[in-house]
Write a structure and sequence with these properties.
single chain, 383 residues, mainly alpha, 3% strand, globular, FtsW
Length: 383
């Protein structure tokens, strides 16, 4: 029998193009670095806490399990047509609000003076992480259906504020989570701007949001101390400025090459929560300027590919959703770095894909799976 030439072979039908490899590689690279840093930065706390029975790898092993779960979620989301989320967006959003409100009931769990978790048996669930992605999906669906009305105040902009931004702000405010509220507000602001919202409306809303945040900070002494400490952390370096000052010491002592993996000194009870709220400080101390440049390069690659996917998406929903997911990741990353470098008041915001936290890692990997599906459909459309 004669062999058929390669050009005669028929292309398999129904086979979708591959996902965006650069985006996938950048995300996996960040997560692997994050796993290493969770292990390194959590070792002192884990080995000394009697609850973990001397298991220095306690946090690392839990984060590894969440990574596997997140990898499965990302793979599944990358296979589901992203337009499916448009159909169920209202249900997802309402369920996320109910979960967020449940934190204020007896189901809520308080840790480190903050009540932001729900005990689901095997782990603690942080509803705010679910609320963030649900709000982004819902706003993307809302704008794609009302894109001709987004420049109008009543039918477009105000409606988005009343059903999306304000309910989220209220629930996050009840949890005393102004950091997440501000981060989500900036993300939704970017989406509304891309969606055609008038700058007059956006500017006024932004000013009102900043004023409300400042007022809420002023009414709580501990919040206001964060603001005043940010202006000069060394003024009270043994008090309220302690964690920021120690973070700056960690970043500064890293130098060009860093102290080396596992060689951080600040993680030994100088910086609170070194594996979550201040993980970037420990990373900078151990890997120095070169390590920081590599990680920032990976995040820049995520931003580049995410916004490129948004520009090339086949429909407005895919475009808005890609902008929302990418902005959510980049805004949170920017805030985390700003906090640990004393460029803004402390907020308790973790670093996406790097910091310890099961709900955050799984939800963000799931969101990246959606973004990968948009890229797959985008490529199919262009072929």
């Amino acid at each position: 029998m004669e062999k058929k030439e390669s050009g005669d072979r028929k292309k398999p039908r129904g086979k979708k193009p591959p996902v965006d490899f650069v985006l996938l590689a950048a995300i996996i690279g960040i997560i692997v670095i994050g796993l290493v840093m969770v292990f390194s930065s959590s070792w002192p706390d884990a080995i000394s806490n009697p609850a973990y029975k001397g298991d220095g790898m306690h946090f690392f092993k839990r984060q590894l399990v969440f990574f596997v779960v997140g990898l499965l979620g990302m793979a599944i989301a990358s296979r589901i047509d992203y337009r499916f989320w448009k159909r169920i967006a209202p249900v997802m959003y309402v369920c996320s609000l109910i979960l967020g409100a449940a934190v204020m009931t007896p189901l809520g769990v308080e840790l480190n003076g903050a009540k932001r978790w729900i005990n689901v048996g095997v782990t603690l669930l942080m509803p705010s992480d679910i609320m963030k992605i649900s709000a982004v999906i819902f706003l993307a669906a809302f704008m794609s259906r009302r894109k001709r009305k987004m420049k109008k105040f009543g039918d477009g902009f105000l409606y988005a504020m009343l059903i999306i931004a304000i309910p989220c702000a209220i629930i996050l405010g009840l949890q005393s989570d102004l950091g997440t509220s501000g981060m989500l507000g900036i993300t939704l602001f970017i989406m509304l701007f891309i969606g055609g919202g008038r700058m007059t409306y956006l500017a006024c809303t932004g000013l009102l949001g900043v004023a409300a945040g400042g007022l809420l900070a002023y009414t709580k002494p501990y919040r206001w101390r964060r603001v005043t400490t940010f202006l000069d952390p060394f003024k009270d370096k043994y008090g309220d400025g302690w964690q920021v000052v120690q973070s700056l010491y960690a970043i500064g002592s890293g130098g060009v090459m860093g102290a080396g993996l596992g060689q951080s000194k600040q993680k030994y009870y100088y910086i609170p929560e070194p594996y979550s709220d201040f993980i970037f400080s420990i990373f900078a101390e151990e890997f120095g300027f070169l390590g920081v440049a590599i990680v920032l390069g990976l995040y820049a690659a995520v931003a580049w590919r995410g916004f490129k996917i948004a520009i090339s998406a086949k429909d407005s929903f895919g475009s808005y959703l890609a902008v929302g997911i990418t902005s959510l990741v980049m805004v949170q990353t920017a805030i985390h770095i700003a906090v640990v470098s004393s460029s803004m008041p402390a907020t308790g915001i973790t670093m996406p894909f790097m910091s310890y936290g099961g709900t955050s890692l799984v939800i963000y990997m799931f969101a990246i799976g959606i973004l990968l599906n948009i890229s797959r459909n985008m490529k199919m459309n262009r072929s």
